[in-house]
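Why does residue order matter? Because the sequence determines the fold. Keep that principle in mind as you read this record.
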Amino acid sequence: MSVFGLLRDRTPTRAGGPGPASLGDGGLGLFAVVTVLAASVALPAHADEQTVKLIQLLIQKGILTSGQAGELLRETGPARLKRGHTAAAPQAAAAPDGETEPPDGRKGGIRVTYVPQFIRKQIADEVRAQVLTENQAEGGAASGLMPDWINRIRVFGDIRTRYEADSFNKGNYNEFVNYSAINGGAPYDSNAGPYPPFLDSTQDRNRFRLRARLGVDVNLADNVQTVIRVGTGDPNGPVSTNATLGENGAFSKYAIYLDRAFVAFEPDTHTTIRAGRSSNPFSTTDILFYNDLGFDGVSAHYEHKIGQDVNAVFTAGAFPLFNTDLAFSTNTPDKYPSTDSYLLAIQGGANWQMRHDLTAILNVGFFDFLGVQGAVSDPCTVQPGSTANSAIYACTSDDTRYLNGQLGNTLYPVRNLVAGPLSVAPNLPNPQYYGLASRFSVLEIHPKFEIDTYAPYDIQLEGDYIKNLAFNRTAIVNHGAPGQSAGPVNNLGSSSTTGGQSGPFVGGDTGYMVKLTVGYPTVKEKWEWSVSAAYKYIASDATIDSLDDAEFHLGGTNARGYVLQGVLGLAPNTNVSLRWLSSQVVSGPPDGIDVVLLDLNASF
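Structure:
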């Protein structure tokens, strides 16, 4: 018999009548049952006398009658309960029927049995389940079962394990300079050598990767929420959330970084304001902003219903992209002005329920990246032994060099170097940093159609178009510091005499994507599925390459190609996905990459 068959209608209520007990009662109530039975579950088999004492306490408090206790524990075993006593009865011999008779032969005691471990566990599990059910029905904290703050906190997280295969096309150009590595360290002196750091474009790689994130969501009030999340990632870039297994040696530990930290405030039912580091507040795709990208700054989102079928939305935000070090330049007494950069963005759109099974969504946004273009420095004297000492002196524009770039944007040298009194011609030192050659003011048009005719299966057709309105080909070609060759150092057309890096500038300013998805809108349960196919085209300077997709063409811009994906649910909140990304460069020397991603995803 279930323990609740004995207790449900016989335990005292707050009014004194039958019904389930709670902590608000004068007696132990249902919480006492939990405590006592859970304790009895933990006891070993030889501790039955302690179990008997606990049962006696339930009888004294009026939670159990003697008959109920006897019915609950009348299997086997030698012990006795006597009303009004707390001491366990002496050991007695077992009667032929398996029950126990008091040694003095007196009647009126309660014969109880030895309770096997599995029965104890069953009783405790039933009590625990009933406690949770009744607590939810009575409002949790209101019944005194748990403090109020517990109801306002939600813990969430996810883990993704990945196998990644990177395959490079034969015939790829093999001298793509890693300008991000140069800008993140000491400047590169092209007159002194040796070779600069190069990107891999010829040798296939296999990587095993891990993403782990854990967060808490706290409702501070009905209209105030705060979220904090930490996770794995790359400190040298804003997009990657992966840790590459084995990257730092056998079984090395992996770093955890602050991934989300923001406060959300809803002044009314239509408006949400976020401040801190939050997820993308805009409706975009990964040809503009990577899905896992965090936005530092403040944003406001407004929604309003127009009639019965249209929901209008408007979002605006301001986000710092770079903040000059307080002591820039560190190793010189003369400090240089700030070279801060920002993203200012606005987006408006509407969701239109055209029919009960057809929704049309359109968002149009403008994203202005201020201060990101590399600036030519004031005349900067080349120091004696500048290659060795380059890390301890700076030019005025060093903080405008492009940090954390992936690949694709057009770059040019930003240092205006002049010979010092100890410099010797003709091979003057030329330690250089590199900045973005173009400004970026990106217009985005993002339409989407959702068809629910075949529910629960969903059909989604999505497009995205971006154009850098600030792109100026003439200015890029003619831009540069005095004493340096004018124009960019990359995204140059092929040349048969130099291997492809001395032709004219061939970069562009436009990107687009089309995508078809069929299946469950969100794969969360076992055997749910979805498949998708997409085509992407992103010219070199259509957008900032450090912020877009980190996986297509191994990240960045100046790429075009296909993406195929399938997702299958394996269990609740657990799925496996397989994705194939095949890409070529849009312009410049040949560079083709096939990437295969096999992911196991679990979330809670």
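Confidence is low (pLDDT under 50) at residues 1-47, 75-113, 496-500.
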